[in-house]
């Protein structure tokens, strides 16, 4: 159960939609992703969206505002939005543009974002432990 919009996959993991933004996101693609995610919130009855932006190297004011609008729309539809993996350059640009992304939750990476949404990572074996393959 996944969609693909202009090369940007939207995966459904239970009641969470997961997507990632590419390193170059133009205004048209930003609007298209927003529209698709908004439709998918309703169609999939999603309670949350995780957007991984770790590949996004730069952000402009239009894309930042589009992200804020998506967050507001998602909250009105009952879904939580977490933006994961923001690079320092993107954060600095947002500050320089005077954009706060109010209401947008952020995490350092996608794994932390999923944990914030209640996902439990599989336990890792202790360092030095011998892993025996299943036969």
General description of the model:
The chain is of the alpha/beta class and 135 residues long. The chain has a single domain (2-116), classed as Transcription Regulator spoIIAA, CATH 3.30.750.24. Helix content is 37%, strand content 21%. The chain is built from 4 helices and 6 strands, in the order E-E-E-H-E-H-E-H-E-H. The chain has helices at 27-43, 61-76, 88-97, 110-116; strands spanning 2-5, 8-13, 16-20, 48-52, 80-84, 105-107. The model has no long low-confidence stretch (mean pLDDT 85). Residues 6-117 form the STAS domain. This is Anti-anti-sigma factor.
Write the layout of secondary structure elements.
Layout: E1 2-5, E2 8-13, E3 16-20, H1 27-43, E4 48-52, H2 61-76, E5 80-84, H3 88-97, E6 105-107, H4 110-116
Parallel strand pairs: 3-4, 4-5, 5-6
Antiparallel strand pairs: 1-2, 2-3
Helix pairs in contact: 1-2
- The strand line-up of the biggest sheet is 1-2-3-4-5-6
Q: What is the name of the CATH class?
A: Alpha Beta
How large is the share of residues in beta strands? 15-25%
Characterize the main sheet.
6 strands, mixed
The CATH topology is: Transcription Regulator spoIIAA
Q: What is the residue-mean pLDDT, rounded to a whole number?
A: 85
Q: How far apart lie the N and C ends?
A: 31 Å
Judged by helices, strands and strand pairing, the structural class is alpha/beta
Please provide the count of β strands: 6
* Overall geometric form: globular
The CATH homologous superfamily name equals STAS domain
Specify the number of helices.
4
Number of domains: 1
CATH architecture descriptor name: 2-Layer Sandwich
Percent helix: 25-40%
State the order of secondary-structure elements, H for helix, E for strand.
EEEHEHEHEH
Q: Enumerate the spans where pLDDT stays under 50 for 5 or more consecutive residues.
A: none
